[in-house]
Amino acid sequence: SPRNGWAGVGASDAIEALVAAGAKGAVLPTPPPSVDVARGIATALAPIAAAVKKDDDSVGEPGPAPSASGSSTAPTPAVGTTTMAGKIIDPTTQALLERERVLLDDAVGFLTESTPSLEEIGLLVEARKGLEELFLLVIVGEFNAGKSSVINAMLGQKALKEGILPTTNEITVLKFGEKPRTEQSKDGFYTQLIPADLLREVNIVDTPGTNVILERQQRLTEEFVPRADLVLFVLSADRPMTESEVKFLSYIRKWGKKVAFVINKCDRLENQGEVDEVSGFVADNAERLLGVTDPAVLPVSAKAALAAKEKGGSELDFARLEDYILSFLGAGDKKGKNSGEGLRLKLGTPLQVGTMLFGAAEEILAQERAEAVEELQQAEGVDAAMDKYRAAMEADFGAQVQAVRTAVNGAVGRCDDLLDATLRLTNGADLFATYVLGNGANGAIRERYKKEVLGDSEAKLRAAIKEHTGWLARNNDNQLRAYADAVRARGFDPSATDLNLFEREERIAADEAAAIAAVRAEVAAKQTAAAEAEAKAAEAKASAAAKETAGDGADDSDADD
Ligand SMILES: Nc1nc2c(ncn2[C@@H]2O[C@H](COP(=O)(O)OP(=O)(O)O)[C@@H](O)[C@H]2O)c(=O)[nH]1
Ligand SMILES: [Mg+2]
What we know:
This protein is an alpha/beta fold. The protein is built from 16 helices and 10 strands.
């Protein structure tokens, strides 16, 4: 079979390589998609793409023998019963097609998951669908070059409108249909069913053309290029290779498309010499711009061809164009050239799109990775700065707490001093009480306590705490502002995070109130202790008085000093 050239591809370990790289099914939940996986898929696509792109020479070369254990009794698959888009295909191609379908579904799944920002994913989905369709011939070129006329001449009928003004405003997909009918499928997208035999073999797309005033028309035309299995680039013989055509060609090249050049309106040229001249000019430019050798350049006159067909005849140049197109669809032309090429192009189309998208995805992922690394470094920097800040704050905090503690201890110490001083002047509890009470009025201790012990302790504590909380707030504010700036610099909204200054200030005020309350409680406790001491003294006084009464009543009270 002329298609045996496909067999080698079936033996490729593309799928295994893909699976090894981590691409499993349409969903890749864990681990998160990485550049490595993108590379894996791109690598896996490569051998299939390479096989599909094999040069014409390799076509028809017998492929390796079927690997089915060589047994002559093994049942051979029923050759010729499998179809692709209604066309009969051999088992090897069928197997290849199956693999490609799985691979493409994986690829779509992977891209959707890993680079959802990649707008062109839809192109791969469309290209994947195209595998189930007929060979797709897309006619492009500047408006008025004669694209619609060329298609009409191919079909032998004026199925499409022609005109000197940009007439084909929308994409028109021409398909076979027993009854002529036009359906509007999507935005700017018509399907026209025509009972023309050629359309049993191929779907043809008429585009609005490039170099049109309406940008939308240009976009529609460009968007259809990736899906094409073969691009017919229609040029007008009287203005071949304009600047916009050169630009559009480089766009087509980007997608790795096979392009044939149709030089239309050759009836406007003077003689065959001019036709050859224009053909040579187009061929030279095409070689240079597309990087191909011996590009197909077909000079025609769509006008003359349709006129001839309508009279039941044919026109030689146009017949060459038709042979060329048909050579892709069957077993090649009379010499077997292009045999199997159509199938090869068809299978290659989604792979080209996939390769393009993986290239773009790899760039996106590499970029994202670089950004993530940078962010990680910054986060680590912030982390380190915070650690440092915490250590510094803890050191300062210790010092300030010590200051507060000193103030409290000072009060405690003075309290002890007072008691000591009092006790030193006495020789025992009883005497202490006597001494104290003999001094005069009730509450003498309390008064002295207040004056000598507490003094301005509370005011001092308040001041110390206020200073401490103020210091905390100031430092935190500065630190916080620095982090907020860093977060803002990364393009995030700091107010969406925990870095809310107002809330934080409220928290600091609450902390301050709590600290003051704690000091108050401590002071109150000391007051209670003083009151208790007073009460004890009162008790001692009472018992001393009772002793006095019970003991020597005559003994006159020796006043204390
Ligand atoms: N002389 C001449 N005119 C042609 C030929 N083909 C198309 N035209 C004219 O060129 C104009 C544009 O043709 P059309 O097919 O609408 O171009 P499109 O915009 O590329 O689809 C129309 O006026 C056609 O009649 C041709 O082979 N020879
Ligand atoms: Mg047109």
